[in-house]
Amino acid sequence: MPGGPRWDRRRVLRTGAAAFGGAGAGWSASALVANGSAAAAPTDGPARVVGPSAGAETVPVVGTHQAGVDTPPQAHLALVGWDLREDAGVVGLTRMMRLLSDDAARLASGTAALADTEPELAAHPARLTVTFGFGPRVLRDLVPAGRRPRLDELPGFDRDRLDPRWGQTDVVAQVCCDDPTTLAHARRMLVKDARTFAQVRWIQQGFRTARGTVPDGTTMRNLMGQVDGTVNLAPAEPDFDPLVWSGDDALAGGTFLVVRRIRMQLDKWDRVDRVGREVVVGRRLDTGAPLTGVTEFDEPDFAATDRFGFPVIDPASHVARARSADPRERFLRRAYSYTEPDPARSTGEDSGLVFLAFAADPARQFVPVQRRLDELDRLNEWVVAIGSAVYAIPPAAPQGGYVGQQLLEGKSTGEKSPS
Amino acid sequence: MKKHLTAAVLAAALVPALAACGSGSEDARDQAPTSGSSPAAKAALTVTDPWVKAAPSGMTAAFGTLVNEGSSDVTVVAATTSVNDTTELHETVENEDGSMAMRPKEGGFVIPAGGSLALEPGGDHLMLMGLTEPVEAGTTVTITLTLGDGTTTDVEATVKAFDGADEKYQNGGEH
């Protein structure tokens, strides 16, 4: 098709360069004429200059970190939790991670996986990332003590109503993508290749606003309508690295992931009026600003009182209870909304939040905050955790190797062939 | 990357074999790493994305894309692997009743100069018969391809679980 999108050829070049091992740059931003009608009829008016298609964008693995942690959240999530089969052992896990790391690297670059039965579905990577993690049992049983990062299961919280169906698993993959079809294909490929070694316990699907619906960087809204995640770590700030990337030599370049599946009781929430809803959280619904402020990122003033002398922000509100005086009690939030059909519920569906948080030390950074919320948070009336898990997120695969290799085989074996 | 072994690289690794079959000279050992003049070094056959279907026993098949970057045609005439007794070069053809079946490819796989040949489920493939050990997902199998000029090329193929590739053998068997 003459005059067709010019980025096709560029995409071929790019995938050729970055097809394996994560080397090579991702999409280099440049202005291109990609609008079909404008390209076909340039005399009709000024050509509409747009960027490369969102589907062509890739997130290359840079440095020592897996992609999908400091990556701006994509629109869609599939979080896959596997239990290793009893006979898998370290040999099985090693084989599984070799295959899955290869799948992830290829698919993230827009290349079909090896033995991909639907290679066309890999053609539009749309910022696909796959981030792998190991649960506490894997570290305890399959990683030698000398190179084992410390990871304890999350403690019990009184208000949790945990369903083992959403519980701790051995292995996790956080698969994120701006396109749901590409995501579904990647998820299927990973699940197929893991099947020999592990059984899927759960797949937690989630979503944020679609790519382009709101300006990049806009704080998400959850399904209760709240601006959710205003207080978050940004990769640009100096605290990001020490609070996100592990300081443990055994997990250098890695981090930890806390998963909390939080169900929202939206039928009960329907009975709360706007004023009540804002009191519960301590923020305005329209702007997300604290009740003492004007814009979203204004600092809440917990000392401010109204004309009757009552605090403007209820000390039991979510924003007040989540706040810590200790700057170390912060983490990277990367949550997604979920909603699943559930005819057994009066609403006909089960909705909530797949809360994902990355932290260098969950016990020090996340657990104290969750303890406070567990003790008292007005929001608890409408939300309940039904799933809870924690994972060590290894660093990026060594050159030519697989994710988790440093833990499973040690650092000296980084030059082994991936396949 | 190991799987992109070229004949040129292998010429270095397989000097005794080359010498034995007469295509190398006595001083091949010294020349091979840098020589660009021997016919073997120019026959640039590479195999991209080689893989083998996992199987506990019996038969299985290997796939990948044979790429000929050289200036003359290359023919793969035979193959052996580290996990089985007899490996055949197969093509998939339509029977008289319209069903598909596979059979040995007469004359081997010809890869034209500058061209490639895809070995894939439902098409041309290597058939591995008489497995001597389980072929397990996540491991690799070494496949040795013998070319028309007598040289050989080693390929490390990744083993993957795969539900397809169950074509009927023309004589009745399956793999």
TrEMBL record, chain A:
One cellular component term from this protein's GO annotations in UniProt: cytosol
Cofactor: heme b
Keyword presence, Isomerase: no
The UniProt record lists the keyword 4Fe-4S: no
SUPFAM superfamilies: Dimeric alpha+beta barrel
Record GO terms (molecular function): heme binding; metal ion binding; peroxidase activity
Keywords, alphabetical: Heme, Iron, Metal-binding, Oxidoreductase, Peroxidase, Signal
Highest taxon of the lineage: Bacteria
Pfam family, one: Dyp_perox_C
Family: Belongs to the DyP-type peroxidase family.
PANTHER family: DEFERROCHELATASE (PTHR30521:SF4), DEFERROCHELATASE/PEROXIDASE (PTHR30521)
Protein name: Putative Dyp-type peroxidase, associated with Cox17-like protein
Source organism (scientific name): Nocardioides simplex
Automatic annotation (TrEMBL), chain B:
InterPro entries listed in its UniProt record: LpqE-like (IPR007410), Lxx211020-like (IPR058248), PCuAC_sf (IPR036182)
Membrane-traversing stretches: none
Stated name of the protein: Copper metallochaperone, Cox17-like
Superkingdom as given in the UniProt entry: Bacteria
